[in-house]
């Protein structure tokens, strides 16, 4: 897919400034939603006792994921280099099939639309979609 | 045959009962043309699609968006018969309009996002799952007559 233009990066930084205060809630809802809407993703969490939307494990994971997204925003000019450690983690330890990155990205976008309906315009949507796709690509960098 | 639980049926009917078709349809189609610009290839006769503002304000896009939503309503009324309900539209999209069926998924995702923004917190994971299942079956029905 295409790389991020200057306009994309500005849009991502602009919307991030608006939503970052709620990033923990966004992450929690996105992960909870993913586990409900795409039950096959539950296979990665068989070690959790509780996969319900209100479980502490779901919240903790949502917070972790969005901390990663925040980190990616700060490293938006070099995602491959900046996310190297996370890529190695996903490639060698977690081994999440990259198709799932698209699924979680979609859930993040849905939550942003719910929580920020006015701000999540089509232009912001396309920039965020491109950004999350670029993050996913950087995360899959070390897979093979 | 697709199996629907009573909960899924009720959820789908409820979503569509509360939707403003004439607003959601245009919003979903114009969002699709902005977020996935290659879909504009099918709308070259629609006039100015030069930038997001032009797309959002284009009356042909708005009109077509409304048509799409009203056609989805047919599916809501015929959930046990989606294959037959959309057979003619499938032939149209394949033979006459030559639309790559992968595009149906793109507008489906945009519609999900627009519905989410309208429903707010009421758009729970369960509601999202039901809507995405319904749209996936519609998408599959639309692709069925391609050969």
From TrEMBL, chain A:
Q: Which Gene3D superfamilies match?
A: Globins
Is Cell cycle among the key words of this record? no
Q: Does the keyword Lyase apply?
A: no
Which is an annotated GO molecular function term of this record? iron ion binding
Domain (Globin) spans 3-144
Keywords of this entry: Acetylation, Heme, Iron, Metal-binding, Oxygen transport, Transport
Taken from the UniProt entry, a GO cellular component term is:
hemoglobin complex
Q: Which residues form the signal peptide?
A: none
One of the Pfam families matching this protein, by short name: Globin
Extract the InterPro entries matched here. Globin, Globin-like_sf, Globin/Proto, Hemoglobin_a-typ, Hemoglobin_oxygen_transport, Hemoglobin_pi
GO biological process, any: hydrogen peroxide catabolic process
Family recorded in the similarity comment: Belongs to the globin family.
Name-wise, this protein is Globin domain-containing protein
Q: List the source organism.
A: Cyclopterus lumpus
The primary gene name is LOC117735589
Automatic annotation (TrEMBL), chain B:
Gene Ontology biological process terms in this record: hydrogen peroxide catabolic process
A molecular-function term among this protein's GO annotations = oxygen binding
Q: What are the entry keywords?
A: Heme, Iron, Metal-binding, Oxygen transport, Transport
| Gene Ontology CC | blood microparticle; haptoglobin-hemoglobin complex; hemoglobin complex
In this protein, which residues make up the domain named Globin? 3-147
Q: Which InterPro entries match?
A: Globin, Globin-like_sf, Globin/Proto, Hemoglobin_b, Hemoglobin_oxygen_transport
Its family remark reads:
Belongs to the globin family.
Question: What name is this protein filed under?
Answer: Globin domain-containing protein
Species, as recorded: Cyclopterus lumpus
Q: According to the entry, what is the taxonomic lineage of the organism? A: Eukaryota, Metazoa, Chordata, Craniata, Vertebrata
């Amino acid at each position: 897919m295409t790389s991020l233009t200057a306009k994309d990066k500005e849009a991502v930084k602009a919307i991030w400034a608006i939503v970052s205060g709620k990033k923990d809630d966004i992450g929690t809802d996105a992960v909870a939603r993913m586990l409900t809407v795409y039950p096959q993703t539950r296979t990665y969490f068989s070690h959790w006792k509780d996969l319900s939307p209100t479980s502490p494990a779901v919240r903790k994971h949502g917070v972790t994921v969005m901390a990663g997204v925040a980190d990616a925003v700060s490293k938006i000019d070099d995602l491959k280099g900046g996310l190297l450690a996370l890529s190695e983690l996903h490639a060698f330890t977690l081994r999440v099939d990259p198709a799932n990155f698209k699924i979680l990205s979609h859930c993040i976008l849905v939550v942003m639309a719910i929580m920020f309906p006015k701000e999540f315009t089509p232009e912001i949507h396309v920039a965020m979609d491109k950004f999350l796709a670029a993050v996913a690509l950087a995360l899959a960098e070390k897979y093979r | 045959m697709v199996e629907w639980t009573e909960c899924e049926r009720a959820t789908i009917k409820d979503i569509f009962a509360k939707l403003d078709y004439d607003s959601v349809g245009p919003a979903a189609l114009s969002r699709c043309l902005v977020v996935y610009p290659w879909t504009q290839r099918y709308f070259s006769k629609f006039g100015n699609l030069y930038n997001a503002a032009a797309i959002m304000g284009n009356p042909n896009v708005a009109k077509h968006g409304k048509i799409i939503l009203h056609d989805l309503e047919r599916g809501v009324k015929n959930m046990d018969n989606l294959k037959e309900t959309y057979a003619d539209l499938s032939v149209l999209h394949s033979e006459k309009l030559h639309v790559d069926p992968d595009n149906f998924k793109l507008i489906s995702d945009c519609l999900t996002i627009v519905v989410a923004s309208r429903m707010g917190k009421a758009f729970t994971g369960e509601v999202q799952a039901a809507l995405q299942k319904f749209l996936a079956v519609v998408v599959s029905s639309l692709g069925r007559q391609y050969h």
